[in-house]
């Protein structure tokens, strides 16, 4: 949903006294830097279209080529909405383990998926791209 709201903001509205960081742009930057084919996971199907549209726009503006497929982990977003966080994270981790066999780079697109991605990274040797990781890199560059 964050992507849907960010897309509505006009640049003029962003000229506020407080900085507004479009958190998906650092995420898109990392995705666009990846040369390997990628899978971007979602749990909320309502966010897929808007996110992919903004990703494609970002790639075109930065003259990048994308090789991405989006996948929705069915029947999981309801779990987090019901407060079943452990079941939600478990479903994501299971999907990550399954996708790890496909030889594609994996990203999770939603902040609610970050904890499961981190848990998966501890269980495996793979790195998962997620919006919080890319945002941290962006902030560190900004303060250096």
In short:
By secondary structure, this protein is mainly alpha-helical.
The CATH architecture: 3-Layer(aba) Sandwich
Task: Kindly provide the name of the CATH class.
Answer: Alpha Beta
Q: What percentage of the residues does DSSP assign to strands (E)?
A: 5-15%
Radius of gyration from CA coordinates: 15 Å
- pLDDT under 50 segments (min length 5)? 3-10
Number of helices: 7
The overall number of domains is 1
The coarse overall form would be globular
- One letter per element, helices H and strands E, the order comes to HHEHEHHEHH
Major β-sheet annotation: 3 strands, parallel
The strand order across the widest sheet is 2-1-3
What fold name stands as the CATH topology? Rossmann fold
How would you classify the helix and strand content by structural class? mainly alpha
Give the total of beta strands. 3
Explain the layout of strands and helices.
Layout: H1 2-8, H2 24-33, E1 38-42, H3 48-61, E2 68-72, H4 77-81, H5 85-99, E3 105-108, H6 114-123, H7 131-143
Parallel strand pairs: 1-2, 1-3
Helix pairs in contact: 2-3, 2-7, 5-6
Name the descriptors.
disordered N terminus, mainly alpha, globular, single chain, 7 helices, Rossmann fold, 144 residues, 3 strands
Q: Would you write up a description of this structure?
A:
51% of the residues lie in helices and 10% in strands. By secondary structure, it is mainly alpha-helical. It has helices at residues 2-8, 24-33, 48-61, 77-81, 85-99, 114-123, 131-143, and strands at 38-42, 68-72, 105-108. It contains seven helices and three strands; from the N terminus they run H-H-E-H-E-H-H-E-H-H. The relative contact order is 0.18.
């Amino acid at each position: 949903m964050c992507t849907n709201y960010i897309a509505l903001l006009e640049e003029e509205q962003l000229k506020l006294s407080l900085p507004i960081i479009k958190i998906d742009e650092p995420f898109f930057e990392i995705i666009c830097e990846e040369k390997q084919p990628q899978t971007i996971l979602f749990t909320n199907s309502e966010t897929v279209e808007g996110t992919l549209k903004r990703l494609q726009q970002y790639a075109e503006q930065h003259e990048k080529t994308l090789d991405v497929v989006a996948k929705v982990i069915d029947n999981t977003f309801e779990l987090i909405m019901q407060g079943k966080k452990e079941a939600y994270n478990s479903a994501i981790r299971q999907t990550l383990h399954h996708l790890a066999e496909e030889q594609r780079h994996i990203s999770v697109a939603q902040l609610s998926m970050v904890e499961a991605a981190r848990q998966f990274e501890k269980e495996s040797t793979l790195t998962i791209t997620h919006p919080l990781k890319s945002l941290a890199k962006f902030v560190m560059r900004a303060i250096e």
